[in-house]
Design a protein that fits this description.
The complex is a heterodimer of chains A (189) and B (179). By secondary structure, chain A is mainly alpha-helical. Chain A contains seven helices and no strands. Chain A is globular, with a radius of gyration of 19 Å. The chains are: A mainly alpha (189), B mainly alpha (179). Chain A: InterPro entries: CHR_Transporter, Chromate_transpt.
């Protein structure tokens, strides 16, 4: 893992660079788990966003409608370079996969079968999910204090284990968690 | 042809704004609209397209492009994809714009700090849900755990995915797995 200890000051991200990064990210996203890849490229490698800025994008992208990975890409692009940055990220994320999937549609139209692919794809998807698990573990290390840990565990239990709908859960948990952060901030000051 | 393009936009643009959490929340409605309401494709074709969209990179909701392709070729695919992604993207940009204007204010820092543990919970809930949704067996769970450990130890994610793809292909060829 390239752990170059750069200063956290965000270097200016060029539009071409944003397009390039998200093009490779878009093609890497098999079976979900893309937040992990983005975290690696955007936070760890390039320091474009802070850890917390990135996580806010994760939460926002999941709560608003739309594909999570596309939303997160738009958010990152916009925070870096405004609407042109978001457009570059959008194009990179969706353009190549769009053309790729149409290529597969052509093959399918010619009668090429996709049987047996399912098992292999299941394995690759599991490996892709490992990226998310890794990101979750890495970011969890930054949580300080009992409160944030309880919020993280509660969110996981409500949505993952109890299968409660996400929006109401977040609508309850987010104000509580932000209130907690605010209380800790004022107490420290 | 132009009316098919319009029909595709009319189907996918509203779906965009209710696609909470992305594709899975609207697959059922896409199927109903494409197969039953408009007859752009058969139910069996939809299942095949679903498998194809899984085989391709990009979000699973790109199946919309495939439905558009079946309905009206390339321009249909483009209309369906733009219909599905542009409205939700505009909404996100509106929220993001407000967010960006806050700059590095204390309010924004507190909100970010408050959202961080929720994002962590959401990430793990997503992993847990997806690994269970596929009817995944012990092999997939073991893959997930081993790969997570490998990444934690600094392995390249490209290498990890490549090794897993080769391993599963080998197991499939050898008849050890498959259905």
């Amino acid at each position: 893992m390239p752990e170059t200890p750069l200063p956290p000051a965000a270097p200016q991200a060029g539009l071409g660079e944003i397009l390039r990064v998200f093009t490779s990210l878009g093609m890497a996203s098999f079976g979900g788990g893309l937040a992990g890849w983005m975290h690696r490229e955007v936070v760890e490698k390039r320091r474009w966003l802070s850890e917390e800025g990135f996580l806010a994008g994760v939460a926002l992208g999941q709560v608003l409608p739309g594909a999570n990975s596309v939303n997160l890409a738009l958010y990152i692009g916009q925070q870096l370079r405004g609407v042109p940055g978001a457009a570059a990220a959008f194009l990179g994320m969706l353009g190549p996969p769009f053309l790729f999937i149409l290529g597969l549609a052509l093959l399918y139209g010619w009668g090429v079968g996709f049987a047996g692919m399912g098992v292999v794809l299941g394995g690759v998807a599991a490996a892709g999910l490992a990226n998310s698990a890794y990101t979750g573990l890495r970011t969890a290390r930054h949580l300080r204090g009992l409160g944030p840990w309880a919020v993280a565990a509660g969110t996981f239990a409500a949505i993952g284990l109890l299968r409660l709908p996400m929006i109401p859960v977040v609508l309850v948990a987010a104000p509580a968690s932000i209130g907690l952060a605010w209380w800790r901030e004022t107490r420290r000051a | 042809m132009p009316d098919r393009i319009l029909a595709l936009l009319a189907v996918f643009a509203p779906l965009s704004l209710v696609s909470l959490g992305g594709g899975p929340s609207v697959f059922a409605e896409m199927q109903r609209q494409g197969v039953e309401v408009h007859g752009w494709l058969t139910a069996a074709q939809f299942v095949d397209l679903f498998a194809i969209s899984r085989a391709a990179p990009g979000p699973g909701s790109l199946i919309a492009a495939l439905i558009g392709w079946e309905a009206a070729g390339f321009w249909g695919a483009l209309a369906a994809a733009l219909g599905l992604y542009v409205p939700s993207s505009c909404l996100l940009l509106l929220v993001g714009h407000w967010w960006r204007r806050r700059g590095d204010s204390p309010l924004r820092r507190v909100i970010e700090r408050g959202l961080a543990p929720i994002a962590v919970g959401l990430i793990f809930a997503g992993v847990y849900t997806l690994i269970r949704a596929d009817g995944a067996g012990w092999l997939e769970v073991a893959t997930l755990l081993v790969c997570t450990l490998a990444l934690w130890r600094g392995a390249s994610p490209y290498l990890v995915m490549g090794v897993v793809a080769l391993l599963y292909t080998g197991l499939l060829q050898g008849g050890a797995i498959g259905r």
